[in-house]
Amino acid sequence: MNFNRIIIFAICTVMILSVFSSCTNNKNSSPASHSDSLSNDQYKDTAITIDTIPLVDPQPADKEEAEEKAEEKAETEEKDTEGSKEEEETEENEMDSEKDKKNPEITEKDGITYVNGILIANKSYSLPKTYSPGIDTTANNALQQMFSAASNAGISLYVVSGFRSYDTQYNTYYGYVSRSGQADADRYSARPGHSEHQTGLAFDLNSLEQTFGNTKEGKWLKANAHKYGFIIRYPEGKESVTGYMYEPWHVRYLGTDIATDVFESGLCLEEYLGITSVYNN
């Protein structure tokens, strides 16, 4: 706008000077010489008019800046739209996950129960007496990797109890029953057919005392087990859900992804899957 005003001011100045000069010349010249002056058509050809001024963008920098701002705004709006879509997808996935927990997919094959694809053995879901897979190879390999990582950190971990057959669990459980009664035994030992040890995916490590959780080994295990596919199966404060007292030594193999998800959720496996752990009788 300032540039246009300057141009107009210049034009007006030139025209005023031209008129003034013409008036002066008319006073000093004779009538005969006045007839020799430029015709109207010739004046139009030589005079400076607004039409003859080249069109110039008055503020090119401002225009470029405006265009850049418009592009930035468009990009921001596009990112906001993409972000909104991602948030909506995340919310939908979380809602689907919550639905899965409320309505878990429970299937049974050869008497073995799977919840959302995870083999389950607890007070609500049992294993056949004949089911005897031994120690799971994948779980055992992951266990050795965890032991190696623990050793590098100055932590010593070892197995005190691994796979147990139905018959071995029968003897173990009823031994506890005869010693302290069934009600107490049910808090820390599984009835035959209901033990995770029969799956070959569970291990008891180092010590069968709750104080193990306060040792450097127990703390390291709690903080790192999920990195190798394991969870602390019966965490503290979850006895009313899992059906068993706190066992900081008992780990269950789920695979790294699921174990990490369970660990980060702060839930026990029953809560994570949306299932119960209660004996029918």
Structure report:
The structure is a single chain. With 281 residues, this protein is an alpha+beta fold. It folds into two domains: 2-58; 106-273, Muramoyl-pentapeptide Carboxypeptidase, domain 2 (2-Layer Sandwich), CATH 3.30.1380.10. Helix content is 52%, strand content 11%. It has eleven helices and seven strands. The strands form two sheets. A four-stranded antiparallel sheet has the order 4-5-7-6. It is elongated, with a radius of gyration of 44 Å. Mean pLDDT is 82; it is low at 26-60.
List keywords for this structure.
Muramoyl-pentapeptide Carboxypeptidase, domain 2; 52% helix; alpha+beta; four-stranded antiparallel beta sheet; 281 residues; 11 helices
Low-confidence stretches: 26-60
By CATH, the topology of the largest domain is: Muramoyl-pentapeptide Carboxypeptidase, domain 2
Strand order of the largest sheet: 4-5-7-6
Helical fraction? 40-55%
Q: What's the number of structural domains?
A: 2
By DSSP, the count of extended strands is: 7
Structural class computed from helices and strand pairing? alpha+beta
Biggest sheet record? 4 strands, antiparallel
Task: Summarize the model shown.
The protein has 281 residues and is α+β, with helices and mostly antiparallel strands. It has 11 helices and 7 strands. The radius of gyration is 44 Å and the shape is elongated.
